[in-house]
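Person: I keep going back and forth on a fold encoding question. Show me how you would write down a chain together with its backbone fold. Please set it down just below, with no commentary around it:
Helper:
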Amino acid sequence: MKKLFLIVVGGIAAIVALSLMGPLVAFAFSALLVFLGMHYYVRAKSTLAKVFWIAVGLVGIFASISNVPALIGLAAIYLIYVLYKKWNNEEISFGKSPIIKEDDPFTNFEAEWAKLTK
């Protein structure tokens, strides 16, 4: 029963992701425009070049706002990823954070607080 549920939900998510492939591509292109606008704005020396790259970035921002349905497609692709991991009985994790260290007292705050208040 659990495998049937995973197949049905995965199939629906795949259909949603495939049907929103157009907005996903447009969203990626608009994100590229925003990135290029920001990147070249910082590097530009003249005022005219800065105005041009601001305009490119704004076009990218407005295009990405118009492609909001692509976020549903991204959620469907993430759901397919999670279902694939569940199907293979793998743990879903993004790895350890490089910022948090094992001996950091803030990772286990309750235990450290108990030591200090005794």
Summary: DSSP finds five helices and no strands in the chain. The chain has one domain: 2-91. Helices lie at 2-19, 21-43, 47-66, 69-87, 109-117. The chain has a mean pLDDT of 85.
